[in-house]
Amino acid sequence: MKVYELSVKEARDRLLQREISSRELTLGVLERIREIDPKIHAYLEVSEELAMEQAEEADKRLAKGDNISPLTGIPIAIKDNICAKGVRTTCASRILENFTPPYDATVISHLKQAGAVILGKTNMDEFAMGSSTENSGFQITRNPWNLERIPGGSSGGSAAAVASDMAICALGSDTGGSIRQPASYCSVVGLKPTYGRVSRYGLVAYGSSLDQIGPLTKNVIDAAIVLSAIAGHDPRDSTSVNKPVPDYTSYCREEIEGLRIGVPREYFAEGMDPEVANLVHSAIRRMEEMGAEIVDISLPHTQYAIACYYICAMAEASSNLARYDGAHYGYRAPDTDNIIEMYSKTRAQGFGAEVKRRIMLGTYALSAGYYDAYYLKALRVRTLIKRDFENAFEKVDIVATPVTPTAAFKIGEKITDPLTMYLSDIYTISLNLAGMCGISIPCGFTGGSLPVGLQLIANIFQEDILFRAAYAYEQSTPHHKRKPDI
Amino acid sequence: MKNEKRKMKNEKRKMKNEKRKTENEKRKNEEREMKMDLEPVIGIEIHTELSTKSKIFCGCSTKFGSSPNTQTCPVCLGMPGSLPVLNKTALEYTIRTALALHCEITEHTTFDRKNYYYPDLPKNYQISQNYACLGYNGWIEISSGKGVKRIGIHNVHLEEDAGKNIHPESGDSKEYSLVDLNRAGMPLIEIVSAPDMNGANDAMAYMTIMKNLLQYLEASDCRMQEGHLRFEVNISLKPKDSRRLGTRVEIKNLNSMKVALKSIEYEIERQKEVLESGGEVDQETRLWDEAAGITRTMRTKEFAQDYRYFPEPDLVEIHITPEWREEIRKHLPELQGQKRNRFISQYGLPEYDASILTGNKLLADYYEECVRIHSNPKTASNWIMTELLRELNQKEWEPDTCPVTSAHMGNLIKLMDEGVISGKIGKQVFSEMLDTGKMPGEIIRDKGLAQITSEDEISGIVEAVMKENEGTVEAIRGGRNKAMGFLVGEIMKKSRGKANPKLVNEILKKKIGV
Predict the structure, then answer these.
(1) pLDDT digits (tens, 9 = 90+) for A177-231
(2) What is the domain-level CATH number for residue B503?
(3) What is the pLDDT of residue B304?
(4) How many CA atoms lie within 13 A of A317 on its CB side?
(5) Mean pLDDT of B295-304
(6) Does position B29 have pLDDT exceeding 70, yes or no?
(7) Bigger pLDDT: B304 or A466?
(8) Confidence of residue B501 (pLDDT cuts 50, 70, 90)
(9) Which residue among the candidates A7, A131, A173, A178 is catalytic per the annotation?
(10) A454, B27, B217, B239: which one has the fewest Cβ atoms less than 10 Å from its Cβ?
């Protein structure tokens, strides 16, 4: 087994046993990136020097045997919308092409304290707006399982890097499915924590009331390790919640006897690829065989989720992205005569088409005369969607659904049809609106060898139940062990 | 008989009333003919910078006058990924202010984003309050021409300040503008009044009382020079008896009470002229042009900004429990009325003195510090109300920016009471302190101003003056006591005002033998 193939837990065991050093592990992964990434294009920037420094620092810690945490010496990839001091953070946008933040996001501080090794920044849809990573201002990332296909998005770079062993694990962000959907398309584990579980400080905002940072990993227990390291209250993020952070790995047990799993009938609707539906159904049956109780439930407002999501997210985005105007940092259009021209040319040249589309739609939804009909109404629908889940969780412990209606689509297939692209988020966005936590875990492959994921959803701050169910299911299947042939 | 009399009386009264009525009618008609009887309707928005140590959403200092962009961090620079965290003190100052203005306090208050583009606003939105302001529905009383008048407070809310754009004016530098973000993120209270003021006098009374109140609340230092107080005025005119409001004009960019007052006076006249010449006032936003002393159109109704307010998702709803609210109410600082009454009872001051001294919180503080240094409440009051206030008004100083501090003043009064100098020399020392900022003891020593209290020394001067004025001395001995004053004056002159007047009188009387 090559060092880059290791999971977090495997690498950690070997580091503790002194079988390998963090330096060897990091060099191995960097070598793998050099070899494979020209085919995948997962990374926007590899911070080799910083990574080697951190690896050597981690080795010192490991040698002394003090202050060792589960991530000490583990190489991790970071989505390019998470600020790391001194490392270019572009959000895959031309408008931030030359932006280097002078501060660390709180999750980066946590990782540094833990002694993790930061490999570099991964590609994404510009400002996390998209479902395929095709909206990157710089490059198109390929799906390691099929280079003709998209890796999903917006955390496509992180998912592809983990799937192709170019990182032991990665961080992504999830606003409407941006961790879970690429995880599903790339056959890795992706977790969207409860809103408020992980600090958003230093995460470049897209939809502030929906954004959450989470792990993309090779298996469930790795996700538990990473979440335990990055979760917790942050005095710099008012929306982070002050609740103790348990050791989530302690919930990774191989039993789900008596667990009540709700299956929402609205989630197996029209437009669903029968192959994907079959794989998800058999995963649910597998869990039933393991002793879980399957309950038919209804989430009646599901059909309004996409409209609701796109209004809320775009409204917030139109305001969040207003700061990129060329006045203070980032790209500024040359040769402009006055401030209005500077603003409009900078933004016209700096933003890609999808970002502009969302800013315009969001601005429209907030405008005088439309605010009540669009934004306020969307907020009310959001409450109803949340209530759907709350009602469901009175009857069940967990909800099981597909992650996406189809497996990974082809590059270019949907990029000219934004609405179809938006519809592919149908199964992931509801829980962002409701603030719940959810995980995507591999549940098989289509006839064409494309990965399919199973989504498990739990009530707020019940990541423990999520890990218990996900781990038990994962351990009963071989899917997470399968690697793409690159 | 009795009924007859009563009838006659009623008739007389009726006639009198009729007469009065027609007189009133006549007067009104005359007035109407002279000019349309128009009444201004004014509402004022006050923006006050709070006196917290750190900014509203980050830990940066709020100190005034530092080099540009040195008091900044990723949060107040609006860097990508940065998030605001509310300063609790700023919130409590706002609640305090709202309570003092008799407002109701919103139990679940929230922040909203006000979206507009400007280089001094790094996020291109201002975090403010729109949908659930902290305080609403309050009032404050002002004294206007017709006695006490109640001005409604529409709402009190908390927001962040913007930075400053600097436009170099000479030479090549016109090619660019500079932005200083030290002020960005300073906590700001906005107090929105109801349109309850009916003239420049009302407006001035309102602004003055608000400034005073904010200082008493220790919520703001209200330093005009540092831009702590800024105003926006809404103004329209309507026929005096009409209840329908006229078209409203908003005036921005008013950075002091003086300027606000000037703009109101100008705008009333401007609108009057428009209306009286049969025109219509346009609904618009105007800017005050200080150099020209006029208001100018900034933007018309068609270009009115749409701020697209929506709830700030980065801040959570704040629950102001009744317990918390009452706790803040309980700890409201001593306000003007309370302080005035205390000054009367504690220092035995006349009501007049107490009112003047407490008319400005900083002046009241100055006074109390002065009395703490040397306990002579009435003399301190006299000196502050005459000498000090004259200088403050002339030079537009605040009591705490005057070179003559309360320590200077307290010591000066002490030296006078101890007989080291006379009151007359005291005035000389006061003006010396104004110029140099030196302490009174030092000035007295350096200039040799200490009173002569040695009997021998005074006797010498008295004898010399008696010798020079033998005729006058004889006249006094002959019973012209009035001439004593002349001799005393001569003696004081000769001592350059330093001789102790009491001793001079005693010695002179003894020597003349009266």
Answers:
(1) 999 999 999 999 999 999 999 999 999 999 999 999 999 999 999 999 999 999 9
(2) 1.10.10.410
(3) 79
(4) 29
(5) 85
(6) no
(7) A466
(8) confident
(9) A178
(10) B27
Q: Which residue in B455, B468, B467 sits closest to B504, CA to CA? A: B455
For an interface test with B, which of A201, A233, A321, A433 has the most B Cβ atoms less than 10 Å from its Cβ?
A201
Reduce the DSSP state of residue A229 to 3 states and report it.
Answer: helix
**Does residue A113 lie in a domain region?**
yes
The total number of structural domains that make up chain A: 1
Residue B351's nearest CA partner among B360, B361, B342 is: B342
**Contact A101/B85, CB-based, under 8 Å?**
no
Q: B101 and B138: one domain?
A: yes
CA distance A106 to chain B (A): 10
3-state DSSP assignment of residue B47 = strand
**Cα–Cα distance, B157 to B232 (Å, whole number):** 15
| Among A21, A69, A79, A136, the one annotated catalytic | A79
Domain with A135 in it: what CATH number?
3.90.1300.10
Q: Is A238 on the interface with B (CB under 8 A)?
A: yes
Position B31 scores a pLDDT of: 47
Q: Are B419 and B386 in contact (CB under 8 A)?
A: no
Does any CB of chain A come closer than 8 Å to the CB of residue B125?
yes
Determine the pLDDT at residue B424: 85
CA separation, residue A69 to residues A56, A245, A453 (Å): 15, 15, 30
Residues B162 and B102 in one domain: yes
Q: CA nearest B80 in A: which residue? A: A204
Partners of A96 on chain B (C-beta within 8 Å) are 80
Look up the domain containing A221 and give its range. Answer: 3-254+439-444+453-481
Mean pLDDT over each residue of chain B, to the nearest integer? 90
Residue B113 C-alpha, separation from nearest chain A C-alpha, in angstroms? 8
For residue A472, tell me if it sits in a domain.
yes
Residue A143 lies in a domain: yes
Q: pLDDT category, B493, cuts 50, 70, 90?
A: confident
Residue A345 a catalytic site member: no
Same domain, B402 and B486: no
pLDDT band with cut points at 50, 70 and 90 for residue B8: low
pLDDT recorded at residue B492 = 87
Cα–Cα separations (whole angstroms), residue B42 to A167, B45, B198, B234: 66, 10, 6, 6
Q: Other C-beta atoms within 10 Å of A244: how many?
A: 7
Shortest CA distance from B127: residue in chain A: A319
The residue ranking higher by pLDDT, B220 or A260, is A260
Q: Supply the pLDDT for residue A273.
A: 92
Q: For A165-179, write each residue's pLDDT tens digit.
A: 999 999 999 999 999
Residues B357 and B460 in one domain: no
Smallest Cα distance from B117 to chain A, Å: 8
Q: Answer whether B304 touches A (CB < 8 Å).
A: no
Whether A237 and chain B come into contact, CB under 8 Å, resolves to: yes
Position B17 scores a pLDDT of 66
A178 is catalytic: yes
Residues of B in contact with A367 (CB under 8 A): 306, 308
- Burial class (CB within 10 angstroms; exposed 0-12, middle 13-18, buried 19+) of A277: middle
Q: How far is CA A335 from the centre of its chain?
A: 39
Q: Is the dihedral of CA A87, A93, A97, A102 positive or negative?
A: negative
Query: A237 and B85 in contact by Cβ < 8 A?
Result: yes
pLDDT at residue B449 greater than cutoff 60 = yes
What residue of A is the nearest CA neighbor of B114?
Answer: A319
Count up the domains in chain B and report the number.
3
Alpha carbon distance B216, B389 (integer Å): 19
Shortest CA gap A311–chain B (Å) = 12
Query: For residue B486, what are the domain limits?
Result: 455-512
> What residues of chain B, 61 to 90, have a C-beta less than 8 Å from chain A?
74, 77-86
Of the partner residues B77, B81, B308, the one whose CB lies closest to the CB of residue A105? B81
Secondary structure of chain A: what % helix, strand, coil (to 5)?
A: 45, 15, 40
Give the residue from chain A lying closest to B122, CA to CA: A323
Which H helix or E strand runs over B159?
Answer: strand B147-160
Q: Least CA distance to A81: which residue of chain B?
A: B81
